[in-house]
Amino acid sequence: MLRRLRTDAAGLAIALVVAFPLYWMALSALKPRADLEAGDPAPFTLAPTLDSFRRVLLVEDFGRYLLNSLGVAAAVVVFSTLCAFLAAVALTRYRFRSRATLLIMVLIAQMVPVEALTIPLFFLMRGIGESVPQLGLNHLGSLVLVHTAFATPLAIWMLRGFVAAVPRELEEASWLDGASSFTFVRRVLFPLTAPGVVATSIFAFIMTWNDFLFATTFIISAQENQTLPVALLSFFRPDENDWGAIMAGSVLMTLPVLVFFLFVQRRLASGLGGAVKG
Amino acid sequence: MATPAPPLRVAGRALARLRRSGRLEPWVYLAPALVVLGALLAYPLYQLVLVSFYDYRQPQVTGAEPLRFSGWANYRTLLADPQFWEVLGNTVVFAGACVTGTLAVGGCLAVLATRLSAWVRTLLFLAALGAWATPAVTGSAVWLFLFDPSLGPVNQALAGLGMTGFEGHSWTYTKWSAFGLVLSQVVWCSFPFVMVTLYAGIRSIPGEVIEAARLDGASTGRIALSVMLPMLRPAMVIVTIQSIIWDFKIFTQIYIMTGGGGIAGQNLVLNVYAYQQAFASGQYGLGSAIGVVTTALLLAISLVYLRVLRRQGEVL
């Protein structure tokens, strides 16, 4: 009994340490600016204020960057899920010669360190921008393009199992009812794999939402097209960091991911969650 | 002499034959993914290798000087540059420390979690979930604030405990202290994956196995070492290799917390080094060569991972 109590106390202490950075983030976002600048060490505040949030959203135009990030992530979710779902259909419900090779290529594509591709992708986007400005450098389209490509391999891999789980008999039944194979895929298969689609969408969303490297490389001079991570970094100013604003911005950026994580938490242990970090 | 059929008609006939037998259908479904992955993953990968063999700097980008094939020159420059070896060493040591730290913390907490009361375990998992969900950018920002020289709670607490040397102490000033700071952030946000996976692994060991070992007179330590550890091996291999792959290509945390690679580049790792060579110094060819080295190293690790997965019966 005493031993149980001691391990519980240790577990509780560790949970507090792990949660502390997030607690401090939320606390500092709510502390009055004067307290922060005076280095108030109190782990609580008696005068919580939304001033920092107001400052970020109204003065620093954070709302715009939030919408930019949301837009890019939403577009990536739609495009990557569509590409991945159709590919998963081909790879699980058809038998053809290059099937196994393609599956291995999907797996390898998932492992390509995309960070190393920054240089060629930068020039590719510059080239694309010369003919279609909206998809080139300094435009959000460039981010949609690359993240769709980055999210698709993992999404194919994840959706494969969901698509394969739909019984063959359903396909035969709908064929007998006169449905074409495309109708079957659209009207029967897609709704039945909805849970898988939701899960892959969330992973694609988080991956895109968190990206800093490509956002900072592609959006060079168009400040109005920045996404959250880059905007947050612009709050850092030598020797006069507005920590209240940085923490309020961090809260705004972390919250959506936290909510999504709670949604998919049961799936995390299977190892698929691993792909999100990095 | 028979004249060869016009290529278009041949292609048309082949297409018709494919369609008749329904063999075209999977390719229609595959087309969008193949186009996207081909154009934005395979082609850039090919370009990366290609550019690494060219003398490609700012004058070539603007078109002031012609593009020149330079063979292995970029790689020779790289291998002769002491900074490259230092960066490679940094990367290996830093990634190694991150992997060790993540596995140690995640593993210990997974074992601890099995012995906790349900409500404490829930709290621990919730805290871990929060750390896991935090984006690298915001995690880095928060960590910088916690360890801020004058306003951070860590220095204030240390000074409050009588260690006045920490008043205004900069954690990012010296090389290994800066690496240590980034390391702690990386461990904080990546141990939850290890903990959750290993916890699930421990839970999936049937109670009868442990019971049988105990009846045979095995001690707790012996059971952990000879029964549980071998059964956890598959899960351990996966989390180890995954950790190696992530920690080897860390970019955001280093870039943000050390201000782009630290004082005089003391905290550069391969990815940040390639980025700086290309986008700060305009050495795109050299940056690509570094990118090729990184990719080769990571693909090698990934192939080991692939083999492990296959051996564990992942269906392809």
Instruction: Give the strand order of the largest sheet of chain B, numbering strands 1, 2, ... along the chain.
Output: 1-2
Share of residues in strands of chain A: under 5%
CATH homologous superfamily heading of the largest domain in chain A: MetI-like
The pLDDT mean of chain A sits at 88
Organism (chain B): Streptomonospora alba
InterPro entries (chain B): MetI-like, MetI-like_sf, UgpAE/MalFG_permease
Membrane topology (chain B): Multi-pass membrane protein
Family (chain B): Belongs to the binding-protein-dependent transport system permease family.
At a glance:
With 278 residues, chain A is mostly helical.
Describe the model.
Chain B: Keywords: Cell membrane, Membrane, Sugar transport, Transmembrane, Transmembrane helix, Transport. Chain B: InterPro entries: MetI-like, MetI-like_sf, UgpAE/MalFG_permease. Chain B: Its main location: membrane. Chain B: One of its GO terms (biological process) is transmembrane transport. Chain B: Belongs to the binding-protein-dependent transport system permease family. The complex is a heterodimer of chains A (278) and B (316). Chain A is mainly α and 278 residues long. Chain A folds into two domains: 1-49, no CATH class; 62-276, MetI-like fold, CATH 1.10.3720. Helices cover 73% and strands 0% of the residues of chain A. Chain A has 13 helices and no strands. Chain A has helices spanning 2-30, 33-37, 51-59, 62-93, 99-111, 118-131, 140-164, 168-176, 181-192, 194-210, 213-218, 228-233, 243-268. In chain A, helix 5 (99-111) packs across helix 7 (140-164). Chain A is globular and about 75 Å long. Chain B has a domain at 90-275: MetI-like fold (Orthogonal Bundle), CATH 1.10.3720. The longest helix of chain B has 33 residues, at 82-114. Chain B has helices at residues 7-20, 25-51, 58-62, 73-80, 82-114, 118-133, 136-146, 153-160, 175-203, 207-215, 220-248, 252-257, 270-280, 284-311, and strands at 54-55, 68-69. The model of chain B has no long low-confidence stretch (mean pLDDT 88). Chain B has a two-stranded antiparallel sheet with strand order 1-2. Chain B contains 14 helices and two strands; from the N terminus they run H-H-E-H-E-H-H-H-H-H-H-H-H-H-H-H. In chain B, 40% of the residues are buried. Chain B has 316 residues and is an all-alpha fold. Classes of the chains: A mainly alpha (278), B mainly alpha (316). Chains A and B meet through helix 1, helix 4, helix 5, helix 6 and helix 7 of A and helix 2, helix 5, helix 6, helix 7 and helix 8 of B.
